[in-house]
Design brief:
Blueprint: E1 7-12, E2 21-26, E3 29-36, E4 39-44, E5 58-59, E6 63-65, E7 72-74, E8 80-81, E9 91-96, E10 99-103
Bound molecules: FE2/S2 (inorganic) cluster (FES).
Length: 119
């Protein structure tokens, strides 16, 4: 199922300069920006396991790891890896005029909308 795109402004690109991860607000939602190689992706701030802040975790640019029980996710797809039992919603990010924009449609998973890519 193809999801509609919903691009919303987040923080200034300069705020994310040199950072691996940064929490910021997009509308009513807190999101986590994560550097994924030469791209940036967005995901929820809280781990889908037991609500640990994912910003306390770590990333190698391809995999995001939660610090609490070491669940891991592929930053390209959000697919769980290793012991992780739930996928992580991952959303595309683009930069325009020095501002970071997030397509928040994929982040609606777990809110009041079903996740189109949940298996
Ligand atoms: S709270 Fe994140 S892996 Fe358990």
């Amino acid at each position: 199922m193809q999801q509609a795109e919903q691009w919303e402004a987040a923080c200034d690109a300069a705020d994310f300069n040199g950072e691996e991860m940064l929490e910021c607000r997009v509308g009513e939602r807190e999101i986590l920006l994560v550097r994924a190689g030469d791209r940036i992706v967005a995901c929820p701030t809280m781990c889908p396991h037991m609500e640990e802040r994912l910003a306390y975790g770590f990333t190698d640019g391809m995999v995001l790891t939660c610090s609490k029980h070491l669940w891991q996710w592929d930053l390209t797809t959000g697919d769980p890896m290793g012991p992780a039992e739930k996928r992580l919603a991952v959303a595309p990010v683009r930069i325009e005029n020095g501002r970071i924009f997030v397509n928040t449609a994929p982040l609606a998973c777990g809110d009041d909308l079903p996740c189109a890519t949940d298996g």
